[in-house]
Design brief:
Blueprint lengths: L12 E3 L4 E4 L5 E9 L9 E6 L6 E3 L4 E3 L6 E7 L1 E8 L20 H8 L7
Antiparallel strand pairs: 1-8, 2-7, 3-6, 3-8, 4-5, 4-7
Protein name: DUF2917 domain-containing protein
Pfam families: DUF2917
InterPro entries: DUF2917
């Protein structure tokens, strides 16, 4: 049976706590965490964990942060705390720096630190 390609056009995608979104063949696409909502049951701000196949480091996004997909491999975005509103779009060019996430003053570097910041009950490490 032949495969059918499906294309869906949206301005934004809303992901809930624990939801994941996988992108494929998205080189040059931008991902921006437009807005976020912290759930009353979870301490700390909303966070989205982004990992790109073939890249040495993962990226953690806060509201207002953006990332440009560098390669054509899989990209997985997972909401670690709260509800996230993501905007996907084309970029004019891929940035020359290896990581294009805009840093936040609340930068957390390790998964265990994220689990602590989100509340251990919200995480399954």
């Amino acid at each position: 049976m032949p495969q059918t390609e499906v294309s869906i056009q949206r301005d934004w995608i809303l992901l809930q706590l624990g939801d994941s979104l996988t992108l494929r063949n998205a080189a040059g696409q931008s991902v921006r965490l437009e807005s976020a909502q912290t759930l009353a049951s979870q301490p700390g701000p909303v966070r989205v964990w982004l990992t790109e196949e073939g890249q040495p480091d993962d990226v953690f996004l806060h509201a207002g942060d953006g990332y440009t997909v560098r390669g054509s491999g899989r990209v997985v975005l997972t909401v670690w705390c709260g509800t996230a509103r993501l905007r996907l779009g084309a970029c004019d060019r891929v940035a020359s720096s290896p990581h294009t996430a805009m840093p936040s003053s609340r930068s957390i570097q390790s998964a265990s630190a994220w689990a602590t910041a989100c509340g251990a009950s919200a995480m399954r490490l």
